[in-house]
Amino acid sequence: MLLIVTLLTGCGPNVVNLKNLQTLPKPVVSPLDAHVGIFYDEEFKQYTYSEKRDVAIGGEWIITIGPTQHTVFNSILGGIFSEMRELETLDADVTGLDAIVVPKVVDFQFALPTDNRVNIFEIWVKYQLSIRDTSGEELGSWPFTAYGKTPTAMLTSSEQAIHAAALIAMRDAGASLVSGLERDPRLREWLGAEPMQPKPRRRPPPRRPDGEGPRP
Amino acid sequence: MKALILLCVLLSSLTACTTTQIDEERSQSASVAAHEVIAILGRRHNANYETEPDFISCIGRGVSKTGVNVLSELELMNALYPWFEPRTAPLKLRRLEKLMQIPEFSAKIQELDLAYIVWVDGSTETVDSAGSVSCAVGPGGAGCIGFGTWQDDSTYEATVWDIRDMKTIATVSAEAEGTSYMPAVIVPIPIIARVQAAACDGLSTQLQGLFANP
Prior knowledge:
The complex is a heterodimer.
Chain A: H1 2-7, E1 14-17, E2 32-39, H2 42-45, E3 48-52, E4 60-64, H3 66-80, E5 81-87, E6 99-111, H4 113-116, E7 120-132, E8 138-151, H5 158-183, H6 185-190
Parallel strand pairs in A: 1-4, 2-5, 2-6
Antiparallel strand pairs in A: 3-4, 6-7, 7-8
Chain B: H1 2-12, E1 18-26, E2 37-42, H2 53-64, E3 69-71, H3 73-79, H4 93-99, H5 103-112, E4 114-138, E5 141-162, E6 167-188, H6 195-211
Parallel strand pairs in B: 2-3, 2-4
Antiparallel strand pairs in B: 1-6, 4-5, 5-6
């Protein structure tokens, strides 16, 4: 009887608390000459996603990524800009700053092998960066995504697999931020890092020797 | 009792046959100085599969037997973060050349003494399975009965980039296949085809030949 009782397991939720990425490296980038303040609201810092599914397709899941994404954003933005200051409130002293960044999680999805019919666990997070001037007026907003996946073969439990996928997604959030800044000149302009350069004018096509217009 | 233990050991050491095919295309040999390192990385950009990290570790262990210093995947990804993440990893040499224009990036490559990058792309999949094994537990004991079989296919390709000359110097591909069997009469006896291990051995041997100092 005692053996049966000890073998019984409850049907509680699958809980994934993302451990902090203590080893997230400093990004290898040339820092942009911009002084940026960043404000995280409590929802971002403690972000938890929960979903109740049918037991046959995964049951209840509670996934907490807030503290880790807070660390990741501080680490990445701290490496990208010549100065990055975390603001306690939106009314904080912004002297010496060029812009204020307010990140937000706008969507979160995860998939188990039962969902996607392939042997991988996936995490997908959509972020929105609101970029404001020092008076608080929004200059623009930039959406970007973070994605992580992990194959089932490597891991022993679904929670462990989702944890691994979420860690990859957090690293990808940093990669997405850096590549966005590299590709999108608007973003750099909003942040006061670099003015948007006008596109070089295309050379007119050479004219035909008879002067009747461009060569075919 | 001894005979039973011996029988169990013999049965557990049974392996099924695996067929491996290796192709290599090499434009020049590699030359790695004692202070230089090479990195072996798996491709992770494909949506349907990803090259298994344990397979990359296996290749790394194989190549390091030649005495070449091999940098692990995570070490390189951390050292050059975020430029070797699945989203940002250079798919072509032209992109790596562009990354080298970032002063911090090229300084880090020099600091690491990175001479070659080996990109490994592919995966091992179970392509077919048949049969079934049923197990039951009763007051008198437990046992299984049945027969199961499955076929695994491995397909991998390794591309070697010379970082100093910015060119591809070799491409090695390995294809392995094998069928595993599991007969069960009270005790299931797995007879596993070590398909991924055969692909790893094949690729490692070719890469050892490429990186072995003359």
